[in-house]
Each structure stands twice: as structure tokens, then as C-alpha cells.
Amino acid sequence: MSSKLIEKSVIDDLASRASGLDQPGGDQRLKSIANRLLGDLFTAIDDLDISMNEVWSAVAYLGQAARNNELGLIAPGIGLEHFLDLRLDEAERRAGLAGGTARTIEGPLYIAGAPLSKGTARLDDGSDKGEVVFMQGQVRDQNGKPVADAIVDVWHANTLGNYSHFDPQQQAYNLRRRIQTDAEGRYSFRSIMPSGYATPPGGSTEQLMFAFGRHGHRPAHIHFFVSAPGYRHLTTQINIEGDEYLFEDFAFGTRNDLIPPVARISDPKVLAERQVQEPFASIDFDFVLMPEVEGVTDTVVERERVSA
């Protein structure tokens, strides 16, 4: 069958009626968005000669992905979450807010309510015998002033690439903490070096990535929310240098400013001071927060998240 069978006026009329633009009431913002998306979808079907079988196969795929609870993985996998970050970056740049720590994706594995510690914390419960890592740094504003009492909310995977709550083998809030910075804006924590992970084998995300000729791997990384009154909420992560997927993250989460050096410490004196018996990894990383500015898109994202 040839493509472009339908006149644009017919597509526009159907999209308008389907989205309720010709009806009073309803959510006007939703109606406008639906009208645009439906019009683009109908046009794509006509332009690309997408068959009925292909349409219904896509509908079935989305239904299965929802049943698999994988839509939160597919969104970053198709670049959607990274694209939203790029738009927010540009909005801030135009508002004169460039210069803070780079943002990157949140991902679908955050759990609110992690235990709160002051200044420093231990994230792991000691059950996973991975490489010990100490991470430390400072939260500052764009002028270099320390931000006291900021909250550094941190979470990451274990050595198998699994996250507590989603992994029944881990205790609640393992590898998850909130750390309140001290008077000098400093934070630190002890944990284990995380592993990267892949999308569920045979799952909806992996199927889509394979169909695209891509993989579903993420490099090792540590997630953060950093927040303080009067400052823009920061969603970011650091990636662990040397990971084979560092620059091939299927979720597009890697950013050059978020790959700090990892030092390996073996000095017996330092080991004794840190109360560890084997060499450990050390990561220094400072967060720079930008001030809240009226009229610029909010960085606090309201989205569905799993509850503890």
C-alpha cells in the first residue's frame, strides 16, 4: 500500500475531535497536548505506511511493558529522560543559571525516606563483600560559599547491580541514605563500589533495545538528589571511571563532568585510620547548587515513584 493516503485536513480534524478540542470543558492543557501528539501519530502512520498489524503489535508491546513494570526503564532507554534534562539545561542557560553541577537522569529506582545522618554515613550493611569506597566532598553555591544543612540523598546498586527494596535479598534502605551537610557544607559516606546492571533479560526494555540494534547495559554509578532551601533541587549521579559501558549507557546518563577520578588507597596508616583491612577506593566530588529563580522551570519533578 502506498503512503500518504490521507489529506492533512482529515488528520487534523480527527485529531481535534479525538482530543476533545471541539468540546467544551475538560483539561485544556491535556487536550492541546493530545491533539498535537495524535496528529503527529496519525501523520507518521500515513507517511511511513505503518500497517494495522504493526500498530496493534505496538499496542500489545506497551501493554506488556506496563505489566512488566518496565515503562520507567523504557523512558530513559529511548532518550526521553535525557532529552528532558537537555531542555532544562537550555532553559537555565537562557536564564543565566549555567555553572552548577551537571544534572542527569533519576532513573526508576529511587525510594524516599532513607535514614538521615549528619555529616557522614555508612550506606552498606556489611553483607556484601565488595570493594570499600569512601566518597566525600562539599556542597557549595555558585560563588563557592558552603551550603550548610543541605541534604545529600544518595542511592546505588550492590555488587550484583541490584537495588534494595527491588531486591528481596537486601535489607530495607541498604545502600540508601540522606546526609545533612555540616557547617562547612561537607558530606562523606562509606559504602561498597556498585556494579552496573542490565535491563531484565527477555523483558520489554531488552526486546526494544535489541530491536534497535542496541544493548540494555548501564555503567556503575551512584545517584544523588541534593537540596537546600533557596536553591534549585539537583538530580544527578556520578559514574565510575573505567567501566566498559561508561560511554555506552543505554539510558544516556553519562556526562563528562560526572566522572570523578577514583583513587585506590593502600597506605597502612590510612587503612588503620579508616578502620578497614584492605585497600579501598576514594572519590572526591563537590556539588554546586544554583539559586532558586522565579519564572524558571522547577527542578523538583513530580513523578510516580515506588514507596517503601
Give a quick rundown of the structure.
The protein has 308 residues and is of the alpha/beta class. It is built from 7 helices and 13 strands. Helix content is 28%, strand content 20%.
Question: What's the structural blueprint in terms of helices and strands?
Answer:
Elements: H1 8-18, H2 28-48, H3 52-67, H4 71-77, H5 80-94, E1 116-118, E2 120-122, E3 132-141, E4 151-156, E5 176-180, E6 186-192, E7 197-198, H6 204-211, E8 217-218, E9 221-227, E10 234-239, E11 263-265, H7 268-274, E12 280-284, E13 287-289
Parallel strand pairs: 1-5, 2-6, 3-12, 3-13
Antiparallel strand pairs: 3-6, 4-5, 4-9, 7-8, 9-10, 11-12
Can you walk through the features of this model?
With 308 residues, the protein is α/β, with parallel strands linked by helices. It is 28% helix and 20% strand. It is built from seven helices and 13 strands. The chain has helices at 8-18, 28-48, 52-67, 71-77, 80-94, 204-211, 268-274, and strands at residues 116-118, 120-122, 132-141, 151-156, 176-180, 186-192, 197-198, 217-218, 221-227, 234-239, 263-265, 280-284, 287-289. The strands form three sheets. Strands 2, 3, 6, 11, 12 and 13 form a six-stranded mixed sheet that branches. A five-stranded mixed sheet has the order 1-5-4-9-10, with no helix packed on it. Strand 9 and strand 10 form a beta hairpin. The longest helix is centred in the N-terminal third of the chain and has 21 residues, at 28-48. The radius of gyration is 23 Å and the shape is globular. The model has no long low-confidence stretch (mean pLDDT 96).
